[in-house]
Amino acid sequence: MFKKILIANRGEIACRVIKSARKMGIRTVAVYSDADRNALHVRLADEAVHIGPAPANQSYIVIDRIMEAVRTSGAEAVHPGYGFLSENMNFAAALEKEGVVFIGPPSGAIEAMGDKITSKKIAAEAGVSTVPGYMGLISDAEEAVTISQQVGYPVMIKASAGGGGKGMRIAWNDDEAREGFQSSKNEAASSFGDDRIFIEKFVTQPRHIEIQVLADQHGNYTYLFERECSIQRRNQKVIEEAPSPFLDDATRKAMGEQAVALARAVGYTNAGTVEFIVDGNRNFYFLEMNTRLQVEHPVTELITGVDLVEQMIRVAAGEKLPFTQEDLKIKGWAMESRLYAEDPYRNFLPSIGRLTRYRPPVEGTTATGGIVRNDTGVFEGGEISMYYDPMIAKLCTWGATREAAIEEMRLALDTFEVEGIGHNLPFCSAVMEHPRFVSGNITTAFIEEEYPEGFQGVTPSDSMLLRVAAAAAAMNRVAEIRRTRISGRMDNHERKVGDDWVVSLQGRNLPLTVRADRSGATVSFEGGDTLRVESDWAPGQPLARLLVEGEPLVLKVARITGGYRLRLRGADLKVHIRTPRQSVLAALMPEKLPPDTSKLLLCPMPGLIVKLAVAEGEEVFEGQALCTVEAMKMENILRAERRSIVKKINASVGGSLAVDDVIMEFE
Fold it and tell me: Containing H/E element for 146?
């Protein structure tokens, strides 16, 4: 077995590899850029080597810099993680030439399967059903338009070396094909150092289901069942689960055997994933093979009990797999929510900054017999950089059934505290509550169909609003009682806390009475409902764990004037608790109107201006591209909302902007 391995990656996956290596007694070497000097993976590793400036194309994807780190550290093997150089044949070949083991497939298999164009040709020759498309290289945008017309809209424009949603666009017409080709090409060059593009038919209403394969160097091949990855936004997975709620045993077996057959055809060893799209009749079509560890590998580990990272290391060291296909069974159900540094209330645009608070839920077995796991690469006080992928953590839960796994995820998301940046925790919570997701009736169009206007938060049900109102009233009484006990009061001025209050939330005023005792409070609403609230919450605590009528309720709490900001299950509520007299007076207060920004183009995220598509004095029309902002390796095109004339441009190409900086003004 290896004595020392180097992890050619950063963030969450680098930390994940370090954990398994440490368990196996293997020393680890981290690599880091200027931006990652104080990163968690650097702290966890036994040693670390600096490899260059912050941009990935000057550090993490520069083969020579990684090879120099290998030589400096004396590492015997390299784990590439995912992204960066994980599917780069030249990197695997360079390690082989140096006599260093690549913890992944042979370079020939990477060449055959890691390139999406080549892999589709091989799959077709092997009799694997593939999606119609054009597998040749495409030289320019006009050729992309011609090919798109031949394949038939809609089409998917994809980077040949892509992954993680980078370098991918859906085009529904010639203009989108032309525009999408150039953006995909730019993103591919920036993220992977390979700007080759191909085009395939975009199959509407599909499910994205993938098979995990694992093979050793002794001819033993297995598949570790499937992962359902249909909850995607901009072709990037958000929620994954294992197994799929859609597959039956026959389809699962057929997909697994086909994935193994494809792996055998290219002499594949180590861990890999074969991705399929599956239609409503359970017909499945090969999409691509990812010749690396997948981001969502934890859900497979939770339902099989197999540590995939450990097995990757053991296979690379020449060991045989310790199990056969017959030994592998599906146990329970697992969910994964990807926590991203992106603001769901701003159309999921990237958010960077410092994590002023980062408190994940407690990992391990829960009180209800489930499991909570959090794979992360950040820490409280750390910074989220604009240079890399926006992933903060992967929150995973396991339960005996799908329903149990979902409920464990709901509670885990409610207890996950993240402050300082925009993040998608509220959106993940909303998905877990969505009836369509709960039913399992999902496709890759789920987010587009269920949130066509973007995510604006969740409106809780009437019963949940009553629970929240009761909790807020009980918490407010605790705070009021504490205020009456402040020392230094004037003599003969004792303040008493009344029982009658009005809780205002979601445009509703709920008169109620709070009667407290030593173990909690009984809240009686004017309409007749009575709820019992028990909690040990104290004022100032940002997380409140309560029991309302014996059922757990977890609230993220922040003080606001006259009440609290409470967040739960995707809802963000301003809750005011007033005396009856205060409630009457509050209704008479004028409402402050927001400033008029209709004639301004504001930067929706921190990022760099990479293109200005218009000039001062130019007339623009609704939907016309105005400029392109790059953040976290993704290009975002900002468009005109209405017909107007550009009065002034305040930004320049290459300029760095903050959220809400004015890019241009209109007449």
Answer: helix 141-151
Peptide bond into 360 cis (omega under 30): no
194 CB-near residues (< 8 Å, 6+ apart): 159, 160, 161, 188
Put the strands of the sheet holding 197-201 in their side by side order: 133-134, 197-201, 155-163, 166-171
Instruction: Categorize the per-residue pLDDT at 198 as very low, low, confident or very high, splitting at 50, 70 and 90.
Output: confident
Q: Sheet of 101-102: strands edge to edge?
A: 47-52, 27-33, 4-7, 77-79, 101-102
CA 601/CA 664 separation, integer angstroms: 5
Q: Please report where in the chains the tokens 């039956």 appear, as a residue.
A: 248
Q: Which two tokens stand for residue 330?
A: 């599906």
C-beta of residue 262 within 8 angstroms of C-beta of residue 289: yes
Q: Is 275 a catalytic residue?
A: no
User: From the candidates 240, 288, 408, 635, which is the catalytic residue?
Assistant: 288
The DSSP output letter for 474 is H
Is a pLDDT exceeding 90 seen at residue 389?
Answer: no
Say how far residue 142 (Cα) sits from the centre of its chain: 34
Q: What is the per-residue pLDDT across 145-181, written as a single tens digit (0 to 9) for each?
A: 999 999 889 899 988 876 667 788 999 999 999 999 9
Coil, strand, or helix at residue 316? Answer: helix
Tens of pLDDT along 79-114? Answer: 999 999 999 999 999 999 999 999 999 999 998 887
pLDDT confidence tier of residue 313, bands split at 50, 70 and 90: very high
306: phi then psi, degrees, rounded to nearest 5: -100, 125
Cβ(248)–Cβ(226) below 8 Å: no
Gap between the Cα atoms of 240 and 230, Å rounded? 7
Quick one: which of 68, 112, 69 has its CA closest to 87? 112
